[in-house]
Amino acid sequence: MPRRVTGMAEFDRVTGGGLVPGSAVLVGGDPGIGKSTLLLQAAAALAARSGRACAYVSGEEAIDQVRLRAQRLGVTAAPVELASATSVRDLVEALDHADGPAVVVIDSIQTMFVDSLESAPGTVSQVRASAQELIRLAKARGFVLLLVGHVTKEGMIAGPKVLEHMVDAVLTFEGERGHQFRILRTTKNRFGPTDEIGVFEMTERGLMEVANPSALFLAERHGEVSGASVFAGLEGTRPVLVEIQALVAPSSLGTPRRAVVGWDSGRLAMVLAVLEARCGLSFAGQDVYLNVAGGLRISEPAADLAVAAALVSALFDRPVPAESVVFGEIGLAGEVRAVSQAEQRLKEAAKLGFERAFLPPRRGKAREAGAQAPQRASAEGALETVEIGHLQELVETLSSVSPGAPMRRHA
């Protein structure tokens, strides 16, 4: 069956090319992050594009409150039917007919209740029963069901874990309160790729799409500054360039601090250990702070080499070579391992005007770790590639130690 395309390119990218009729999609995120705004905009865009009515059911707000938000977003002309209800029985009676809406938004599933159960709305049994009844109706009638899910303080969607197994797709809406960027990420999708992201910017007129997130994440980058490197990452099928910042400062504490924002703290501990054990550096007595600029959270191991470059640059107070991108996975022996889709990362870097890339050896070109200096491959277009086989080679490049010279321990 043809997908129902909203016309919001970032939203359609995350859902795998549009919404599949009869599917159930769960959208989770922190309070106030913009879940209701996003789904109201998506429902209005789909209704205006297809001409078919869409329904927005709120269990938390009155109809007039939803209409006020629609006026602020400028979507009052779209044929979106509004309702304020919490009884699943009433919803099923209203939606169980052939000429029903094409898309139904339930905001939120934790406010719905089935009157055959005595427990309060939001409990595990009520959330499971309410979702099951609504998903059954969506499959039978062929409309798209969009469920808003509250999250716990740990960031998990509240209610039973089986709720995520019942739906066809799970989307998480991420973002920092201090940043205007919002990231919609796919964690499960039966009809498309996972780990796909859509980037939005929160404005007074609602969420605006960001077509080129790499340029936006790098907009405030300041030239050659020590402790900063640009990571060529991959989110789903989209290459994204983001700046990684590191700060190494003397510590007055017995146990130095290790603070991380946007990356895995365990992964940082591993990179620091490899730099100390395999490259002769010392971070003892130093506080280490790591930040992924722009509010993006990175999870792929390919960021290891970019993090190491930022740490070494901050330690020696020498900037990473100008207009360079870095990516690669680090092993415990200090070797730099190949990562997937390197060509796609290089193309994105060249498109944004970068001139050099530090990357792992290509498959078939692997060599003994630390045996020789960084190997420069032929320039690909306007981009020069520098292959790093061992982490010590990167340290020598950034610390301006000539190849083959003994590595001094930095205190």
Folded structure, characterized:
A motif (RadA KNRFG motif) lies at residues 188-192. One of its GO terms (molecular function) is zinc ion binding. It comes from Tistlia consotensis USBA 355. This protein folds into two domains: 9-211, Rossmann fold; 216-399, Ribosomal Protein S5, domain 2, CATH 3.30.230.10. It has helices at 9-14, 35-50, 63-73, 88-95, 124-141, 162-166, 213-217, 265-279, 304-316, 342-351, 391-399; strands at 24-29, 54-58, 80-84, 103-107, 144-149, 169-174, 181-189, 197-203, 206-209, 228-235, 238-250, 258-261, 286-292, 324-326, 329-330, 336-337, 356-359, 375-376, 384-387. Strands 3-2-4-5-1-6-7-8-9 form a nine-stranded mixed beta sheet, sandwiched between helices. It has an eight-stranded mixed beta sheet with strand order 12-13-11-10-14-17-19-18. Mean pLDDT is 88; it is low at 365-380 and 401-411. It is elongated. It is 28% helix and 25% strand. It is α/β, with parallel strands linked by helices and 411 residues long.
